[in-house]
Amino acid sequence: MRSFVVSLVVFGGLCVAQTKITSVEGITQYKLDNGMDVLLFPDKSKPTVTVNVTYMVGSRHEGYGETGMAHLLEHMVYKGTKNRPDIKVELANHGANFNGSTSYDRTNYFETMDASDANLKWALEMEADRMVNSKVAKSDLDSEMTVVRSEFEMGENSPTRVLEERVLSTAYLWHGYGRSTIGARSDIEKVPIDRLQAFYRNYYQPDNAMLVVAGDFDEAKTLGWIKETFGAIPKPSRKLIPTYTDEPVQDGEREVNLRRTGDVQALMAVYHIPAGAHPDSPALEVLAEILNTPPAGRLYKALVEAKKAVATEGDTYQLHDPGVAVFSVRLRKEQSINDAEKTMLAVIDEVVKEPPSKEEVDRARTHLLKNIDLALNNSQRIGILLSEWQSMGDWRLMFIDRDRIQKVTPEDVARVAKIYLKTSNRTIGRFMPDAKPERAEIPAAPDVAALVKDYKGNAAVEQGEAFDASPANIDTRTVRITLPNGMKLALLSKKTRGATVTAALTIHYGDEKSLANKDAAAQVTAAMLMRGTQKHNRQQIQDELDKLKAQMTTGGTTIRGADLSITTVRAGFAGALRLAAEVLREPAFPETEFEQIRTASIGRIEGQKHEPQALTIAAMNRHLNPYPTGDPRAIETIEESIDGLKKLTLADVKKFHADFYGTSNAELAVVGDFDVAEMQKLANELFGSWKSPTPYTMIQRSWRKVDVVNQTIETPDKANAFFATGMTMALSEEDPDFPALLFANTMIGGGTRSRLWLRIREKDGLSYAVQSAFQAGATDKFAQLLAVAICNPQNMTKVESAFKEELAKLAGDGFAADEVDIAKKAFMQEQQVSRAQDSFLVRRLARNAQHGWTMDRDAELERKIAALTPADINAAVKRHVDPAAFSYFKGGDFKKASSAQ
Hints:
This protein is α+β, with helices and mostly antiparallel strands. It starts with a strand and ends with a helix.
């Protein structure tokens, strides 16, 4: 029998009763008397706190004419309550990293903030307020509808995304999973406000919600605040009616043909599978890994390695009700889609006849478990993942799924392949009559309550220290070392949750002359590093990373240099760094891998030929950075990039590595749970004698005046358009006006409290996404102020006019004192939250090491911004930001939009 612990807490004059349900691996569940579930997940290792509220309502719960309603509400509840007129502005003022998302089974909202009683209490009060007091007003719907429609149109620009929608709508005849979460365009445009309000009142209630608080907080105080805020909401009298539509057994292969403008081809095969809680689900996850994950994945080897396609993907959709396994293939135009389809189906069918080996299952299982273990080390990530599993029936399913994966055998995988990978259970593209059709009986979702009863899980993950992310403390804790060859180390040791370690290594090479016409070589060389070494092939490298519980990525360009990043745990870090040194110093450069990378790169670039965003941004960057073809600073056209890749040879890649790779001009930053002395000794052993073969001189950008242009790019058959504008100025980070301009950008378009956001998205409802960015060289006097937005092609003129009007207001009136004060508070909190993320901090330490800076530079920048007056900021803006100097670039199907008006 399940045991309950009821405790009384006196807080704020209230006698609070909460029922403790269970505790699993450091996560404790409580139940409020109004039916709301509460999960507390304390993690002292990060000075942040995440509040996540999940409502068990998604597109599955929508009725006729209500498609997209759950997602539309996700937008609407940010519009505020009677006492909170603009929640997004309040979130921004608290320096929160926040978002909301809607899926098939749930809608969730989260905010991550600097850990403080004030921030946490405010977030709980805000979430409780908008749970039942959101306005959901007609005036807000009128503007937000166009924003959501803009998001809908953005999805319509992607042939592969539309293909998935069509395939799923064909695979499901009746169940709600066959409807896209974004909804039908007509429902988005025509939804009655009273129907939306009724949907909100029905589902946004405590007995249909789960609250997760994760991070650095006091449990006793937090429980009190939760009772004071959410506990004060009465349990509703209405009874929720569960969805009851069961998808019938599929009775034959189905077909979808999608024809749209594009430059790539795609295939997709979908199979019905059981609910995420079903015991067959873990074996299906392993099966998807075996079929898809490169380089050993069967589909990958048969299609990508055989040069029949450029990419494969595979996944299982674990959901509350029976979901699907999805396998997809992407091809270039000249590749045969018929041949690829035959190969894909043959490989999938063959896995039934030729069951996976023990080696394949062990590899897939290790890879899946590694990703789960790394996720468990991140309290913010887990707080959000719990939402997915709760929507399947109970949050503890996340741990049960992990435990089940550990026990998956080759026989389990062979069994589920035989049951579910049937031709009659497949949706790909054609219908085939069959006198004796086979049926795949999909089992019902199990009794989750019985499944999770008394579940205890493993021991809780090791806790980290409470770390002060202030620049002064970071400097105090950071050890800086220069190795004999000139390589710089920045080492910050601290106790982290799960003993995680994050590292970033950057190699700088060459100069303006030696790197001319070598951009393709730089990128492909970096991409080839993990495709095989003198000691390990590509699969062996991946297997070793999985054993070490490590993730490693490489990349590189002529301007940025080569970079390598590692995320792992203390026990695996030394092995991962040794493997990184091998990858960097001893690449094998296999011919087959070179051809795969080159073909895939060409296919990726060709896919941008008719994309409004890619074309518009490229046109703007080429105009604002007018360097001749071949110059490392030049922005290549799509045709130039493809031509460079086609001309590139394996010999060019090998020569680039031999000519440029070495660590005389490199930085290695490490943050996390490691021993500094051991790390210094190991880094010296691995890199201390590796000298760069050629001199390095940082390539500088220089400012030059460019003509003002207004350019339109036609992209036929694209439902969404892209807007970009920008200007340049002769200014570096060392300039006295840099702090004022950097801070001014946050008020112009740097967040949800900014002028562009409030005008173009919130007031006018013209765009789903609008923002600005200010960039300046570290030492070179070249800076850019840029802004972008997406919109319906018919609204492009309005977007451009709105931007120009906001620029004119800025030039005429500047920023007011209250606007500056609010933005400053949010800016400072945002900096603190950023430094609390190890992935950000390790990159900052590496950059500082490159230039010989310390974190006091960050502190000094914040001191300068704190001291700025509105007059200081307005004067700097007037000196550098000229509305007449902006050039405009717009991509979209404007001819079609014009004819429709």
